[in-house]
Amino acid sequence: MRSFLLLSACTLSLVGCDLDGRELLQSFDPETGESLPVTVVDLDREEDGPVFCAEDDVTSDSCETYSGTLGPSDIGTGQFSGATFTFDGTGGRVCVMVDPQSVFRDDLREDSLGNQGPNPYMEDFPYDDGDIDMLAGLASYYTGTPGELLGDFVNDFVDDNGVSRRVDLNVCLQEDTHGQPGGTAGRATPEMCAFSTLTNTPYRIVLNAYSVPVDDNELKYAFQVRAGDCPGSISECTLRGDRDRAADGALPFGADNVEDMYCEGFPD
Amino acid sequence: MSSNRCASALLALALPLAGCFVEELPEQNLAGQVVVPASAATDARSIGMVYVGIFEAWNPEQLGYSYPATGPRVGDNPLGDTQPYGGTTIGEYAFPCLRAIQCEVITGRYPSLEDLLDVNPINTDDGELMTEEEFYDQCQWYYGWNSIDEFRFIGDDQLDFTENEDGDWAADFLAWHTQIPAGSIIWGFADNDFTSCSPNQGGINRRRSDDGQYFREGTNFADVLNFPDKYITAGDLVSSEVAVITEDKTEGYRLVIDEVIE
């Protein structure tokens, strides 16, 4: 009888070990219980894909911002969801900007002067935020396959001494907080970089889905490629469209998304 | 044979085998000596942090002074990456207990507090020069050191450079775990004006004054060997010639850092 009780206790305690670690992965879909596949989007083949914003349009402030969606990445296996966009170099500087969903702090707002202040009607909701990391370089150096497999610009070569080397030819260099190249912006924070291009030479932008919002496993983003240098600074409100539509009544004052609340505020 | 005996026998066989395992890694330690001529530095205390790198090749023409060969220019970097195989430094930035001379003190340069304060005079709030006792007290408060032997940037036995028979300054170096293919080169420079130190990096201050101010103790930038030209400025020294790595030789190299940058 004692043995039976002991065995029962052991069995019962093992029930507590029946955890499904997949729930911790960004690719896990709680509705179906399945892992969502990695998706790689070739924006060059999209019917309404991004358009390179020429100098005249930059001057007249009429650049179109592209809004897209990316799926979750499988970080454990190193397979990333993402997108690529190819454009021809102009011979001058080109600026690339991307803004991942959605607002880093929902309980803040930006006024018309670009200053951040509190939004007393909102609480922060971090589960609708994601993170995109950006790379760029000569399309010929790209190691991935658009629409199939995400890559980078890290190439191998053998030097004059016969040593196998790796060289990173990513030209989208962002500075970290110490002014060193190699930084990336974090969750829900826009990234930008500018670089010199060769005339009529294809360049490729790579948008790497580092993390997707856990509330729906989909990452909205806003994206723009334009001639010239980037603005001195960009904020959540520089590119618009990186948000989900909120359920009716979920936001105060009839707003239907958190980005509008952050950028346009609310009636006094 | 019992199972215990069997296991013991297997263990006895396996143990000596562990000593036979050769990883055959391409990386090796590289040892040598850096010499700074007395004509380039009259005082070893004035020699800044010395960076020694092992590079693919040498290109003395590119910048008008001795410099390693570089890869293609990527992004906005003014010059390509030297892509070093490895390297080391002689001395390192040490936080000297107070921010007034942060990023200006290198380990292995000062035999005594007097020497340090002689090269780096510090004015106190009273407008007087800080004394050795005051500096000692400051370090005791900041680091908790209770003996001069604990000062990591002070001590006769800690000096990197010693005067050799020619009257020049010589210091040994050891570059850990670097690839050293035959034909590659050793090149180095001395950053005499501390350009390579970032006051916004390094350890977080371990003690705070009454104002509770947070700061970093300062350390070298991470890409100094990749982009030395960013940090080489007037008054620095570079090696006008390079040492060439030869097959199967991992020690005994000599690098003279003698060219003063104008």
Molecular structure report:
The complex is a heterodimer of chains A (268) and B (262). Chain A is mostly beta strands and 268 residues long. Chain A has one domain (38-264): Jelly Rolls, CATH 2.60.120.380. Helices cover 10% and strands 28% of the residues of chain A. Chain A contains three helices and 14 strands. Chain A has helices at residues 2-15, 55-59, 258-264; strands at 28-29, 34-35, 40-42, 66-70, 82-88, 93-100, 108-110, 116-118, 131-138, 154-158, 164-168, 191-196, 202-211, 219-227. Chain B is α+β, with helices and mostly antiparallel strands and 262 residues long. In chain B, 13% of the residues lie in helices and 21% in strands. In chain B, strands 2, 3, 6, 9, 10 and 12 form a six-stranded antiparallel β-sheet that branches. The longest helix of chain B is centred in the N-terminal third of the chain and has 16 residues, at 3-18. Chain B is globular. The N and C termini of chain B lie far apart (80 Å). The mean pLDDT of chain B is 93.
